[in-house]
Amino acid sequence: MTQLYAAFLVGIPLLWLGARHAESARVRQMLYLAASYLFYLTFGLGSFAVLLASTMFNFWWGSVIRRRPSTWMLWIGILLNVALLSTFKYLPQVAANVAPTLPLASPVAHLALPIGISFWTFQGLSYLFDQFREERLDPTLIEFMLYMGFAPTVLSGPICRLPELLPQFRDTSKATWANVVDGARGIWVGVLMITLARFLGGGFDGHGVNWGFDHAGLRLGAADVWLLLVGYGFQLFFDFAGYSRVVIGIAQLFGIRLPENFRHPYLSTTLAMFWTRWHMSLSFWIRDYLFMPLATLRREAWWRNAMLVFSMIVFGLWHKASFLFLLWGTYQGLLLLAYRLLQQRQRRLGVSISGVAGSFLSWLLTFGLITLGWIMFRARDGSQAMYLLGQAVTPFASQGMTLPANFALFIVGVVAAYFVVAAASRRYAQGGAVLGGFPLGVRYVCYAGIFYFAVFHAADPQSFIYFQF
Amino acid sequence: MRSAGRGVRISVAVVVFAVSLEFWARVDDYLTYDAPFWGRYNSQMLYIRDTLGQRGKPNARYRKWKLNELGFRGPAMRHDRINVLCFGASETFGLYESEGQEYPRLLERKLNERAGRDTFQVVNAAYPGESAFTAVVRVPELIDAIHPRIAIVYPTPADYIWLPYLHPAESPPQSAEAPFDFRMGERLRTFAKGLLPEGIQSRLREQEIRRGAAAFAVMDRLPDENVRQFHDDVAHLVQTLRDRGVLPVVVTHASAFGPTLSEDDRRLLISWRKFYPMLKEDGFLDMERRMNETLRAIATEQGVPLIDAAAQIPATRQNFADFVHFTNRGAEVMAEKLTRGLMPIVQAQLQPSSTPKGAE
């Protein structure tokens, strides 16, 4: 927590002033890089060494591919990146659970996961893909190091692409006060969302979503399970979308625009729409660098469908190499496939469901299916997932609720408030503008609240859900 | 004139901001812990005083700490279980562990897991500041209320650094309670301290220790008299329990300090000394060693089981949140060691002839 606050309270203003007075884009890049590496070093020398090694390799291999683009060169780059990711992310689990008696199993099982490796490895891979596609990228080493280790994105994304960032790194214009105001608005809104996520997780009186999932032996009815799943879906959304908004806001302070990661995903009326609005930087990465290249290898429909499911399986396993994430990815893939087939059938038959009722039903189905999927994302193990699923789909098997009534009311209130705010105004991302409509005194009370919850609830890095991935 | 107006506006803004922070702190306490929005809210809400001294207040609650109907940390009492009573101080009460993760709770779970059914109930009769000297006077009423079969005795040696502190009348005077408790004050202080580098924090602690030590004759090591007093009080507690038909199990005192000290350990020792400025840092290590020898000797003298937690719990920062208090993981390790040590003893309690006294 201290690192984050030190970065916020001391590092960011100093860096902003330094960047403002930097004579050239190159000096500014050096400043950003030094600050980014200092920040990342606070998470351990080992993590930093892995980041540096990945950066150097991808920079070098990217230049090799640029000079002589060939498929096998690209494959070598892909395999080495996947090998690095697997070594830290998947191998320890294998060593601990599958082959604990093998020599070296113990040290491998205790390999520490460099924070953000899943995010910056995918950035390195997208660079190799872009070089292979001859996108005319010619970053200097400093620029590439900054791209891979840029402080706002290095821990948990958004997963950026070099063509988006490189022109901004090279931009000679300086950050302005308007950038600060825009960035600060994003940070405020992000903090609010993270605070809501913490309350959903911790709940009242210690009875929150985390308690509901982690408390062994809790007897839950169908209403409890659905409430927990909806609560978790919103906890996850507020946590990660809030975090993303904060880092996008921080980058914006310096005049750098990062890609959006969430856009009202729970307002989606179809599954396909949901996946263009949820963790967008990863889903677009999967679409552009995995699904599209694989799907275009063959013309048959079955191949395209299989690659759709396969891509979503990779999406699931990107989070964690576990059976539940494999199931979650498969479930999402099959849902998308079913949606695609249904769409084709509707088109052939010339049938369409339109109007408010149709949209509502479509939204309800999408929301319900996505929510049901969180069982696999959050359950402690397979047996808990089976139990929750069993309870969720048999609403009349049990009566009454185990979860405290005030917690249930809180979830319902948060969800309702979210939908009202998001659907009615779609201005929730403009927190400053919303507050700007209030008298000055009320604004100060709100600022104090945001400051309080940012300091005492929202900023514990250990509790960001996506830091574990 | 214009600058004066500006100054007033800034002052009003600062005041509104500060008052709002206090408001949000109270909203937070209310939402998170069901704390009263108005009125005082501090750890003293957990205790009451009776003729024997301080004890837990029935059904009291402060932040994550909840007491049951008898004033013990933990859930409501069940009357159909075999009871295991835990004596100790803050290490047993639980300071840093998440709710329900203090070692007595985990011990109960583990014992019941091994038993294959809900047979045991572990009653956490400890509270911060409890010593063997003060615990012994509560034994009769505890046994009458709980009917324990076994008592875990995990005394804290630090109470014996300055013997007058054992007597409530001679304890350091509590600062008078302020008429208004500014809840943001402590939070902001902790937050600001956390921002300082560890080296500066240590310097500040050293200064505080120097100021505190000025009132005492600073000791290199604990006088033998203190160790003797510790011995006598623990032995008295053990004997009293035995006389009342309870089997005491003595547990040595685990700490965060291993055989070799790192820089981090040195800083931790300074933090510890802040509470007892009259004893030099190395004196704490010596105290732990001698007090644990004393506990081993008591177990031998009285022929009661001993669980050597000091030797068995690794002295790492994963297990200890500070010098002696457990983390969640440390509490888990402690509970596991106690379970292993207790299993041979409790096997006898599971024999068909044994019926819980509370169920009689």
Write the topology of this structure:
The complex is a heterodimer of chains A (469) and B (360).
Chain A: H1 2-21, H2 25-41, H3 45-67, H4 71-89, H5 91-97, H6 105-109, H7 117-132, H8 141-149, H9 151-154, H10 162-170, H11 177-202, H12 209-214, H13 222-253, H14 271-274, H15 280-295, H16 301-319, H17 323-349, H18 355-378, H19 382-392, H20 405-424, H21 431-436, H22 440-458
Helix pairs in contact in A: 1-2, 2-8, 3-4, 3-7, 3-8, 4-7, 11-13, 11-22, 13-18, 13-19, 13-20, 15-16, 16-17, 17-18, 18-19
Chain B: H1 2-33, E1 47-50, E2 53-56, E3 61-62, E4 65-66, E5 82-88, H2 90-93, H3 103-115, E6 120-124, H4 132-135, H5 139-146, E7 150-154, H6 183-195, H7 198-213, H8 224-243, E8 247-251, H9 263-273, H10 281-302, E9 306-307, H11 309-312, H12 328-349
Parallel strand pairs in B: 5-6, 5-7, 7-8, 8-9
Antiparallel strand pairs in B: 1-2, 3-4
Unreliable spans of chain B = 354-360
**What is the end-to-end distance of chain B?**
84 Å
| Sheet/helix structural class of chain B | alpha/beta
The greatest interface here is:
A-B, 23 and 21 residues
* Oligomeric state of the chains in view: heterodimer
Count of separate DSSP helical elements of chain B: 12
Q: Helical percent range of chain A?
A: over 70%
What portion of residues of chain B belong to β-strands? 5-15%
Radius of gyration of chain A: 23 Å
The largest β sheet of chain A comes out as: none
How many structural domains can be distinguished in the coordinates of chain B?
Answer: 2
Alpha carbon gyration radius of chain B? 23 Å
**Taking all residues together, what is the mean pLDDT of chain B?**
88
- N-to-C span of chain A: 19 Å
Shape of chain B: globular
The major beta sheet of chain B can be summarized as: 5 strands, parallel
The run of helices and strands of chain A is: HHHHHHHHHHHHHHHHHHHHHH
Kindly name the structural category of chain A: mainly alpha
Which CATH class of the largest domain in chain B applies here?
A: Alpha Beta
CATH architecture of the largest domain in chain B: 3-Layer(aba) Sandwich
